[in-house]
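Hello again, I could really use a second opinion on something today. I've been puzzling over a protein and I'd love to understand its fold better. I'm sending you its amino acid sequence along with the backbone structure tokens. It would help a lot if you went through both lines with me. I've dropped the whole record in just underneath, so have a look.
***
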Amino acid sequence: MTLVLTGHTGWVSSVAFSPDGRMLASGSDDDIVRLWDPATGQVLRILEGHRGPVASVAFSPDGRMLISGSTDRTVRQWDPVTGEELRVLRGHTSGVISVALSTDGQMLASGSADRAVRLWDPATGRALRILEGHMDMVSSVAFSPDSRMLASGSWDTTVRLWDPATGQPLHVLKGHQGMVLSVAFSPDGRMLASGSDDHTARLWDPTTGQVLHILEGHTDWVNSVAFSLDGQMLASGSWDHTVRLWDLATGEELRVPLEHTSGVLSVAFSPDGRMLASGSADKTVRLWAIRE
């Protein structure tokens, strides 16, 4: 079963499920965030306020807040129930490409084309610290499940791991032969995934920096990676128009790729693991039934 959600007039750069799975957010090049009912595909509300393409969306752990990052250089906080804009965070000197919230809800991270990662207090909007070290655009940020580690992927081909409490660098992961476009931690924190324009996804041990698996099969940029919440699968979305599913125990591809009519920019699993959402340059969000 595939449900196709239409309405965006630009590329769908980011998708995210609410923690209870009752809401799906999508950010697009049309400067808009849309909130959907994933059970029916109906639009619940449209969030307007950004003045540039929305590159990233993320829900808070309690589901009471939605975060969006845009090329307008801002991070915005929204009430997903009412659609009210709660706060605008400014400080980046170039577009915001990725946003993430720590699992304890105490910290918000944003990665930007200005090569920096900024950390914020989501309760107050106060800037906490700036993490510098990347030599090119920061395309993706992700917190570990225990909130003690932050990963950032960059066009400089590296993944950097940081202690978000202190801002100190922990590891620099090297191995990709091209820009790193997406990073994600496994639910148990023992694995970090990265997607790159070298057409591969890699699985790393974040504590040692060692490569565990190199996932090969895509024929173009791997724009997005996401773990299922049971930790058994990884999804990867690519410019080759496909979403691929991988067995994390073996590194093998699980099934026939899921196909869009244009490049896939973002993937996200529903909390119950039964559904996968993908956003694409074909201006649609697709919902795929992964498990019965």
